[in-house]
Fold this protein.
Amino acid sequence: MTRTSAAAEARPAAVTTRTAHHSDRERRSASFTGRAAVLVLVVAALALTLALPVRAWFAQRAEIAALRDDVSAAEQRVADLQVRHERWQDPAFIAAEARRRLHFVMPGEVGYVVIGADQAVPESGAAAVAGEDGSTWYARLWSSVRAADQEPAPGAGGARPSDPRPAGSVDRSDPAQ
């Protein structure tokens, strides 16, 4: 019987050890949860604290990249303008441009202007002075003055003062009379 009683006494001790171990584990998990909550709060505070500076840093990096692109474009434009300036320092280039743009000719040469199918004949003389309807600018001006001097038709709106000239008088400024 000693054997059985020893086994019986051993069992409650093992059960007691397991329950003590289990309650210790519960305490650890409860304290671990509190520690985890504190850790999460600290990490969240750090993330919020660093969010704005990191965002500003990324924005500044993007702005710097854009400014570098602008600088490289400006440097390319300066290089192009320097090449253009060097071309204009050459007298042969200037003469070629004068011939091409201004139709200059050298002394002793005869200049011709060839009008192609894609170009219109340049206006000259009276044709340049005439308007779309074939009248000259001064004829159009005079007709507009005459039209402004006439009374509007009845019911056309806009009351005009009566004509101060007596009935039957002749307007000497009108060349048609």
Observations:
- Helices lie at 2-88, 91-102, 126-129, 137-149.
- The longest helix spans residues 2-88.
- The chain has a mean pLDDT of 77.
- The chain has four helices and no strands.
